[in-house]
């Protein structure tokens, strides 16, 4: 604490990201990174952008990320005015809180969800109500009927991994015609249905996506929002009042190249999904209850072993999983899907710990 702090800083409770251990070869299953590298075309594109002597770095990047937005728009069958690009989808979500979610009524999001949402609400002074998931950790869209100042949910949800069918998202949109509905699709490519195709029908729908998970680019920080041009303009107005150049040159080139290699992207998602299904069976055989997952992680609890103790025991073996000390989920572990050998190491270690 310092007397130099602005008043709001005293009241902030910042988000705490998952640990990035300083070990040579940790089995890192705690932050939902992709276990596979990005397409080789991404690496080539970064080299090309950098050139021999890095002279391109002298100049500011395109403030509108136009080429990237055009490529991503084409990929989704959208127009470029329907696409916003930001420095990671966390930044896109932060802009959405400020640009679209501050109204007279509180916004709603699930009680168990991405723990950054309450942090943004606090930073931007957005009132919110949390809506309990049901006992299966499923979202009941009937709980999100207007009046509210907006609805925000991840699909699939995090950290549960459960997905809502598109028909339910549509129920939500119809029930809230006068409020923004934001669907955070960070994990959609691992098995859920995207709401992108509903954008032309629902001017209140904003879909947020990221290159961090399915496209293996967490280190580049590139995220998007898709929606009606009026929603995109609101985000752009906030962006241009905050940072005109949020995406650096290398990030723009890398993300664009990843959308040009659909086969690589689809193959790495398929590998993750296949490892997920295998891991679910192995965890169940060890006595875990596993929430059905459409994401690149699973959410599991053991009836006879405390979750924090299990996470600590795994950590001594340099295996990192995520434990949230939060109501209703403090006996669960969120485990990212690793390579087959990382999953095997996890299962072997759990076998020893539980024995
Ligand atoms: C990982 C994640 C994000 C943020 O991703 P960025 O790396 O900032 O693009 C957003 N929402 C959810 C639910 C996530 O799990």
TrEMBL record:
GO molecular function, one term: pyridoxal phosphate binding
Keyword Transferase attached: yes
EC numbers: 2.6.1.9
N6-(pyridoxal phosphate)lysine PTM sites in chain numbering: 213
Pfam family, one: Aminotran_1_2
Segments forming domain Aminotransferase class I/classII large: 26-350
Entry cofactors: pyridoxal 5'-phosphate
Keyword terms of this UniProt record: Amino-acid biosynthesis, Aminotransferase, Histidine biosynthesis, Pyridoxal phosphate, Transferase
Pathway field: Amino-acid biosynthesis; L-histidine biosynthesis; L-histidine from 5-phospho-alpha-D-ribose 1-diphosphate: step 7/9
Sections of the chain in a coiled coil: none
Gene Ontology biological-process entries: L-histidine biosynthetic process
InterPro entries linked to this entry: Aminotransferase_I/II_large, HisP_aminotrans, PyrdxlP-dep_Trfase, PyrdxlP-dep_Trfase_major, PyrdxlP-dep_Trfase_small
Catalytic activity: L-histidinol phosphate + 2-oxoglutarate = 3-(imidazol-4-yl)-2-oxopropyl phosphate + L-glutamate
SUPFAM superfamilies: PLP-dependent transferases
Protein family according to the UniProt entry: Belongs to the class-II pyridoxal-phosphate-dependent aminotransferase family. Histidinol-phosphate aminotransferase subfamily.
Subunit structure: Homodimer.
PANTHER family hit by this protein: HISTIDINOL-PHOSPHATE AMINOTRANSFERASE, HISTIDINOL-PHOSPHATE AMINOTRANSFERASE-RELATED
Protein name, as recorded: Histidinol-phosphate aminotransferase
